[in-house]
Amino acid sequence: MPTSPIGKAFLGFTLLEMLVVLTIIGIITALAVPFYSKMAPRLRILSANHELLLDLRHARSEAMTDKRTITIPFYPDQNTYVLDDHKHKMAVDIIVSLEKMKEQSPEDTSTLHFYSDGSATPGLITLSDNGRRINIHIDGLTGQAESDEN
């Protein structure tokens, strides 16, 4: 370890060492930013898919446990759905659309039902975000909700 003219050891880094470390950090950051910007939309739609699947599975479980019908209205124009009197807003740029549903209400909502025997209104929920699509299939007989991403 280098010593000063007085004989005490220097405790620190040289300017050159600091510049080398800052250059390495800059290179790593420059490589990471494009990677993150490409992954962020995919992570956003995967997160929305995971949240919606959990809510659907919870609704089915609650319907069977409480021996009652659980109704989940979807409002695609607002990117929301209601479960347990709580409105769930989907992430920005994600569109929820329902197809093949048996029931359409006059308020332009698509309604999904989970029944006490475990069955459900069959349907397909599509999440889309900038060209990416994830489909969630609801089996009418078993009430199981499965995603293309599972």
Descriptive notes:
With 150 residues, the chain is of the alpha+beta class. The protein is 35% helix and 27% strand. The chain has one helix spanning 15-66; strands at 70-75, 80-83, 86-89, 95-99, 110-114, 123-129, 132-138, 145-147. The protein has a four-stranded antiparallel sheet. It has a four-stranded antiparallel sheet with strand order 4-6-7-8, with helices on one face. A hairpin with a 2-residue loop joins β6 and β7 (132-138). The radius of gyration is 26 Å and the shape is elongated. The chain starts with 14 loop residues before the first helix and ends with a strand.
- Name the structural class: alpha+beta
H and E string:
HEEEEEEEE
Shape: elongated
How would you state the average pLDDT, rounded? 84
- Look at the structure and name the CATH superfamily: minor pseudopilin epsh domain
What level of helicity do the residues show? Answer: 25-40%
Largest beta-sheet characterization? 4 strands, antiparallel
Q: End-to-end distance, in Å?
A: 57 Å
